[in-house]
Amino acid sequence: MQKIPVTRDGKKGSDIIILHSDEVVKIESVKEKEYIIHTVNDKYYWAASLEGFEEWMYEEGYRLIDQMNVVNMNHVAAYDVKKGLVTLQPENETLSKAASAARIHKDHIVNVMNMLGELKKLDKSSDPDEFQDDIFESILAQEEDSRFARSYAMIQAIYEKKKAEKQLEQSEQRYKSLFRHNPDPIISFDRNGYCTSANPALFSMTGYMEEELLHKSISHLIVPEHLEHWHEYFDDTLNGQTRHYEVTFRHKNGGAVELSILNVPIVVNGQLNGVYMIGKDISERKRAEEMLIRSEKLSIVGQLAAGVAHEIRNPLTSLKGFVQLMRTKVTGYDSYFEIMKDELERINFIVSEFLVIAKPQSVSYQAKDALHILQNTVALLGSQAMIHNVELITRTEDSLPKINCDENQIKQVFINILNNSIESMQEGGTIRMELLRAGDHYIMVRFTDEGCGIPEDRIPRLGEPFYTTKEKGTGLGLMVTFKIIENHGGRMQIRSVVNRGTTVEIILPTAPEHDNQG
């Protein structure tokens, strides 16, 4: 936009006022090199030659009507053909001025108005691709007057420039929208592996802030066992290859996020400038796969249990009876008979665990006090804890809501967990039990012991049948525990540090509000 130096009275030595060219609606010739500059609500004086400002008048959208009268066709609001007058009124203005167009053919005025109308529509449009250039080509092809043809060509050039700018802007906006609003994390790297940009999904997924990752390496986000492969795939992409792989990121709070990654090379002017890394969080899919595998194992165990459990119990009963009979008839072998009896009881226990999995249980869900169930369990295992020199400590929040559960099954869960904790503390110690709120509709029961702990790589497999960390365990107890919690609509998480202890957190849904009030 040009700036025009004008005066109020046209006299030498008068104060100079600067007008912006877009404010001008017409330029009226007084005499050679003297002009009146009109705005919609005022007029000023300017001393210059027409040729001196003719070029920028074309560039700014002014159109020469005749040598005595120049108007800014961008501000033509109406055209009276009979009177040969154009009405000049900028947008958002209530005042207007008129200018004579009697010496110019009416088709020229109409053509310019139509062409500038398209230009204004383009300015306001959000989709430049919907506009066609036919009107410009048609008018230019028919015009024989070089002065008018020049005006049309300039309008067309301005139109094409604006359209190209809008298309570029729209393309950039689409890219930014795809980048910023994509639910999957997207990161761009330079050739050195430094993060040059990342979308909000990455920061949300990892817990890091933008300033913590930009212009830095993200190696600290990748678990050590995957880091070497990540660098290998990054180098492959810098060599032009698209690579697809899986990697585990570490959340800022220490958690893990499983990602499926697509590496795509960034090519600028034919040169490989970096790498785009497009991720997809597959943590839920992985958990679903693990649950499916666990469910299939449960199903297999259940089928096996249904087929053989009763058949095992029948001869087992006979064996127990004969062992007891022989014990009364034969002397000197009491220790052997005791071992045989214990092992038969152990077989009976395993069969019982099988039947819990295989046999559909009659479950009656009622609103129960979780603290009451826990206190009953502690009372039941108190003597066993004392024998192992284990102290049981319970802490609870006030006014906890009841849980919707089968009391016997939840008690079985608490027994299994406490038994495992007691057995893990050969030298004795403390087991802390806490009942806490976990949101509006859940409570948490947390067990923390000071036992031998469980290696981290074994924790994901806990709950699988026959997978156990105990010397004489079957893995069925935890499997039953997981199944009970799952059937109650809850979830269980186990964390452990070797030689420091294990924490088990059980999240259970609360009973409906009307049941809690009863």
Automatic annotation (TrEMBL):
All copies of domain PAC, residue ranges: 243-294
Gene3D superfamilies per the UniProt record, alphabetical: 1.10.287.130, Histidine kinase-like ATPase, C-terminal domain (3.30.565.10), LytTr DNA-binding domain (2.40.50.1020), PAS domain (3.30.450.20)
UniProt cross-references to InterPro entries, sorted A to Z: HATPase_C_sf, HATPase_dom, His_kinase_dom, HisK_dim/P_dom, HisK_dim/P_sf, PAS, PAS-assoc_C, PAS-like_dom_sf
Domain spans labelled Histidine kinase: 307-512
One GO-annotated biological process of the protein: sporulation resulting in formation of a cellular spore
Pfam families xrefs: HATPase_c, HisKA, PAS
Protein name: histidine kinase
Source lineage: Bacteria, Bacillati, Bacillota, Bacilli, Bacillales
